[in-house]
Task: structure prediction
Amino acid sequence: MAIIMDGKALAKKIRQELKIECDELKKKGINPKLAVIMVGDNPASKVYVRNKSRACNEVGIEYTEYLLKGNTTQEELESLIENLNKDKKVNGILLQSPLPEHLDINKAFKEIAYLKDVDGFTPVSVGKLCIGDDTFVSCTPLGIIRMIEEYNIDISGKNVVILGRSNIVGRPLIQCCLRKNATVTVCHSRTKDIKEHTKMADILISAIGKSKFVTSDMVKDGAVIIDVGINRDENGKLAGDVDFENVERKASYITPVPGGVGPMTIAMLMNNVIKATKEQEMLK
Ligand code: GUN
Result:
């Protein structure tokens, strides 16, 4: 039976540590603040945004939400980002994805000032990550690496197989794992034989969004399994990408859904807001 990696408990510990840092900043008159922009009313985004606001509240980070109508234009969205870039009280800007189809999310991300890019999605942050500079790193990959480190799992020289190549998880995760000297394979919708790759994985990270996609026959004995998926199964129950009951028997470590990667993502967002605040202060 695998060790279940408790992302919920670890995220709580990280939030407590960040609260201490946040209190220290406040004593110096510095009040970290996050601005979140959401366009339209995607139900999943509403849940994410609510969880982010709760975490801010717990850590002591000021939080403002901009809920824009579904018919907002690209110009209106970018004009709001521009105003938030200029607003000295705002330390972090988060544009919740997805956006309605008529909007170009990559174009909007480009408008976010690098020093306020707490999601690590701007081209500057992504470029810095690729060349190994210190930067803002996308919160889910950052949370996964932190969790792996916390459980003393060595990535160096290991075969890491990532399922999914999204800009939010898969792609930045490749860079995070390379930085830790892993041998990285990425599988996606055009990969010919996914199982051929997953069976070689010492660490298998699934971020494709399909319930029970990863079955026990795809997994090597003793592998570490990280499940990024947040799906609804056939009974409407929250489920990851991994067939947990069966894969757990073969794995050495496994993350649950819920309570694994999800809370870590939000804790890393809090981490990035504090980092942004400190870096902006240093430039004053
Ligand atoms: N949508 C799903 N996950 C994320 C995230 O981590 N950041 C943003 N901005 N949008 C998301």
Summary: Residues 48, 94-97, 119, 139-140, 168, 265 surround guanine (CB under 6 Å). Residues 29-114 form a domain with the Rossmann fold fold (CATH 3.40.50.10860). The CA atoms of residues 207 and 228 lie 5 Å apart. The radius of gyration is 19 Å.
